[in-house]
Amino acid sequence: MSEVVRPSVVVMGVSAAGKSTVSLLLAERLGTDFLDADDLHPASNRAKMTAGTPLTDEDRMPWLDRVGEELALRESSGAVIACSALRRIYRDRIRARVPGAVFVHLHGSDSLLAERANGRTDHFMPASLLRSQLDTLEPLATDEAGVTVDVASAPDRIARAAVEWLESSRT
Q1: Calpha distance 125→152 (Å, rounded)
Q2: Which of 60, 86, 104, 139 is the most interior residue, by most CB within 10 Å?
Q3: How many angstroms separate the CA atoms of 33 and 50, rounded?
Q4: Any idea what DSSP says for residue 3?
């Protein structure tokens, strides 16, 4: 029987890409904890976003440190966290605490993401901030451990594609 790999996975992307849904499915498939980085934001960050104000790097860095710390606490058992991780420096900040972290970038067309963002009523992040996130987004570089998956597919298919990539990258 082969050893079960339970990596530290960051499901990244802009708002409305489906990070929480895919992360939960992926965590179930991997038998790991699911975390949502939105839950780790300080109240001041949540208030800014709720008011439609984009976060600055100064706002994000302590939050990203906490994301990395939560992943590091679960490094031996693995975990999946939904976290925007839009820029390389943000991903580097997480990797500083969990060097083996891998990233699943949920990518979609601007129009599909806008449609999803405008259809959400249960999230503190207003659809008006989607453009700032798209403008901030830096896709995974070739030297970053990760895979990009199109969000036009059903969440279960996206999670399956991520598991297949994880399995193939570990062999």
Answers
A1: 21
A2: 104
A3: 27
A4: P
- The CA distance from 67 to 39, in Å, is 10
Query: 67, 37 in Cβ contact below 8 A?
Result: yes
> Nearest Cα to 125, choosing from 32, 24, 23, 20?
20
Neighbours of 89 (CB within 10 A): 13
pLDDT of residue 129: 65
Q: Per-residue b/e over 40-50, b at no fewer than 16 CB within 10 Å?
A: bbeeebeebbe
Six-digit token string for 30: 């991997």
Write out pLDDT tens, residues 17-62.
Answer: 889 999 999 999 999 999 999 999 999 998 988 888 888 999 999 9
Measured in residues, the chain has a length of 171
Q: What is the pTM of this model?
A: 0.87
CB-CB contact of 83 with 22 (8 Å) = no
Helix axes of 155-169 and 19-30: crossing angle, nearest 10 degrees: 50
Alpha carbon distance 59, 44 (integer Å)? 9
> How many Cα neighbours within 13 Å face the side chain of 48?
11
What is the β-pairing status of strands 79-82 and 102-107? unpaired
Q: At what angle do helices 43-50 and 57-73 cross, to 10 degrees?
A: 130
**Cross-strand bridge partners of residue 81:** 10, 35
